[in-house]
């Protein structure tokens, strides 16, 4: 089974914090869709796998594409892959991109999940982030999407400079007025190369402290769990049965293919990634080649590291599955460390493994390093180099 990710690189405006590949030159949309059709066709001819479980249209801002372009993309996928197993089809939408008139069309092409990039419901925070929409447009987007789709997700950001608990609580309370099934809450990251990063290094802005970040993180957890959401990954909350299946495929290291500039793919422990810019993307496809910039077969060390990192930040690690793949009794090797985590309220033993608590998620990177260091010492003793 496969997950398909399609990167639509067009935006109305580049947000100050975003480091995803995107451009605001909409004149290239037509050429992009033609190239994307060819890439999908080329990839399907070269891969033995074709059964698709999830599709995710991301970006960029997929919702700025006209319906005729989306129909071409979906028809290309349907022609090249087996969609009879499809259970989740998500499209990312941004308020301000005039997507509300297309909601019925989205449903007609098979979309069953809408993800809305709200980020904040405080006007000053939206302006700081460089968003193109207002609070009113964001609320209208949610309300209208819910009239057409049962499964609606919203993205928000926290730890925005000068953000306080009162403003974040206001955003959460406004979201609480709607029957949302999924909320992603990301702590703001200062990615190198973004306008936000430049403002940081030039000291025009000051990030929140780790203590302040933790307080807002806990506020989100408490508000959302009280509202019936379950935290199933560091930044993701869902009502029962509404976890994002596509994202779960990433965290479980299942097979997925990415189409479009900068998209990544992962099949049977092999990873490859496309050229980031449209120029090179177009050139390779016009030459009859896939636009692959690089690829790698994951080593034992990489596979083990990713399994631990992705497992700890999401559903946890299943001991038996880990043992079978890596010939390593993780429960025995890590038991003292796991007991310490449990005593500190950072983890819980499950029936078949170990998973982090909400406080554990907050320091998941630190815990991952602790476990990897312990494993490295043990495996060196066994003459297995990771």
Can you give a write-up of this model?
The chain is of the alpha/beta class and 386 residues long. The protein has two domains: 2-250, Aldolase class I (TIM Barrel, Alpha-Beta Barrel), CATH 3.20.20; 300-381, Arc Repressor Mutant, subunit A, CATH 1.10.10.920. 44% of the residues lie in helices and 20% in strands. It has 15 helices and 15 strands. A nine-stranded mixed sheet has the order 7-8-6-5-4-3-2-1-9, with helices on both faces. Strands 10-11-12 form a three-stranded antiparallel sheet, with no helix packed on it. It has a three-stranded antiparallel sheet with strand order 13-15-14. Strand 2 (52-59), helix 2 and strand 3 (88-93) form a beta-alpha-beta unit. Helix 1 crosses helix 10 (278-286). The radius of gyration is 21 Å and the shape is globular. The relative contact order is 0.11.
Beta-strand fraction estimate = 15-25%
The name CATH uses for the topology of the largest domain is TIM Barrel
**Bulk shape:** globular
Task: Characterize the main sheet.
Answer: 9 strands, mixed
Task: Give the beta-strand count.
Answer: 15
**Structure annotation, total helices:** 15
CATH superfamily of the largest domain: Aldolase class I
Radius of gyration: 21 Å
Major sheet strand order: 7-8-6-5-4-3-2-1-9
Report the uncertain regions: none
Q: How are helices and strands ordered from N to C?
A: EHEHEHEHHEHEHHEEHEEEHEHEHHEEHH
pLDDT averaged over residues: 93
What is the rounded distance between the termini? Answer: 29 Å
